[in-house]
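Example record

One chain of 134 residues, shown exactly as stored in the release files.
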Amino acid sequence: MKKFENYSANLAVLARANEQDLDNDFILSGIIDKFFLQFELGWKTLKDLLAYEGLDVARTGSPREIIKAAYRCYDSLDEDTWLAMLSQRNNMAHVYDAAAARALVQTILNTYIPAFARLEEELRQRYGQTLNTL
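Predicted structure tokens for this chain:
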């Protein structure tokens, strides 16, 4: 599944964010952009996997509905965390405030990257090589 491959590859880059100069506004902006991409890849991967599982909700296209359905299907997915990601993505996409950006980066580092990694691990365990054929 190309989306999952992209999800994993982007996560590998995003997971190195804590090694960067977090006092640099350009770096902060890059981390936030990578987070936005990671979130998009995440919910779209979930959408495809829910379709694979035969769930009708996968046809809606709504990130909120996909997250809620995925919460019922995947043990590692924390619904509140993923809904917070959705909210952050929507709130920060068109507004730049340096203090809010720094706070978001800390949340990305401490909460969101681990949530992405937990989901990646569960999907690898659950689907194994099937991910390569979807």
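Notes: The chain has one domain: 2-133.
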